Amino acid sequence: MKPRPNQRLSSQAMAFVLAGGRGSRLKELTDRRAKPAVYFGGKTRIIDFALSNAVNSGIRKMAIATQYKAHSLIRHCQRGWNFFRAERNEYLDILPASQRMDEVNWYRGTADAVAQNIDIIDSYGITYAIILAGDHIYKMDYEVMLRQHVEAGADVTIGCLTVPRMEATAFGVMHVDKSMRITDFLEKPKDPPAIPGDPAHALASMGIYIFNWAFLRDLLIRDMQDDSSTHDFGFDLIPHIVKNGKAVAHKFADSCVMSGLETEPYWRDVGTIDAFWQANIDLTDFVPKLDLYDSAWPIWTYAEIVPPAKFIHDEDGRRGSAVSSLVSGDCIVSGSAVSNSLLFTGCRTHSYSSLEYVVALPQVIVNRKAQLTKCVIDRGVEIPEGLVVGEDPEEDMKWFRRSEGGIVLITQDMLDARAKALS
């Protein structure tokens, strides 16, 4: 399919979302769900950000590659992302690893996840393929990046974060010339190269790639036949293109969507308990770093039909209140004090309990007189009456998972084990 000059580039592109990862650093939060399916921000899931960016950018053809414990993710996409209409050339295909190429291999790497679905992508009739990770929090207009890709005549355009130079030691770093052409790709370098003209900063890969589909298709077929390859974009394909083709860096700041309230481009990998907790709690700030209230760039999701939140009891010491907090629909704050916290859909907090800096996933019940501080509570957990968490680190670690940053993760299995041990 040849590009049409009278069309937005996004209408000639597809988004291929890599959503198969477990996210093991999130510990028990990903015991039953893949990282992209983890809840975020009160009512969304992590994958909703990549999908919403694509829709808001004008992309109407998408595929989601799943692998690890995908049921929760697939169900969410079926319920919340089922508005695409094939008769309008709109598609959202969910592509579980299904040994489509042979009876031995599941998805062997990020590039292999795309390669095993070449025939499906061919059927879309696209010109450009945008490869996305499904596990980051950010707002980005991919049309801007597409325009740079076409204008530069690049084989691949790579989305890059501008980070303080010495913080880039934890990333894959792009060494670029003045035209933003990538001359070298360095994995977690001890002395990261600076951006030309900006010695204090370096360019770190976001794991977002734009290719002409015909070019990527040929590259994937060759890679599949290479037994020495790990079939990964970052380890195999991108270094090959940097060496033998034309790879161009795209600064996230050029396409980041900001409503006017955000003061700097916002991108987060919420891949640890500490990072997940912090990014959620950041949303409770007076002026949060990420504006979820921007109706011009909505974050789409499965919108459950639930009643409004309710606050009851108004007595000293037993007042249903929430301050500097996000409280989702179907929550009942009953005679309890909630501060600097985020309650997902369907939570219940009962009399004389207090929650401070707590992230409670959907359907959490906090019983009377519980005192919770700096916690992440998994979906459906019932906190027993009088439980105190966040005051005694040694007591917390005896029953729950306590992160390096002092955040306590509570699951129902942990509470059941505690109850059995104390009985």
TrEMBL record:
SUPFAM superfamilies: Nucleotide-diphospho-sugar transferases, Trimeric LpxA-like enzymes. CDD domains: ADP_Glucose_PP, LbH_G1P_AT_C. It comes from the Bacteria. Keywords: ATP-binding, Carbohydrate metabolism, Glycogen biosynthesis, Glycogen metabolism, Nucleotide-binding, Nucleotidyltransferase, Transferase. Residues 307-410 form the Glucose-1-phosphate adenylyltransferase/Bifunctional protein GlmU-like C-terminal hexapeptide domain. It catalyses: alpha-D-glucose 1-phosphate + ATP + H(+) = ADP-alpha-D-glucose + diphosphate. Residues 15-284 form the Nucleotidyl transferase domain. InterPro entries: ADP-Glc_PPase, ADP_Glu_pyroP_CS, GlgC_bac, GlmU/GlgC-like_hexapep, NTP_transferase_dom, Nucleotide-diphossugar_trans, Trimer_LpxA-like_sf. The record marks Q67, W106 as: Could play a key role in the communication between the regulatory and the substrate sites. Pathway: Glycan biosynthesis; glycogen biosynthesis. Belongs to the bacterial/plant glucose-1-phosphate adenylyltransferase family. Involved in the biosynthesis of ADP-glucose, a building block required for the elongation reactions to produce glycogen. Catalyzes the reaction between ATP and alpha-D-glucose 1-phosphate (G1P) to produce pyrophosphate and ADP-Glc. This is Glucose-1-phosphate adenylyltransferase.
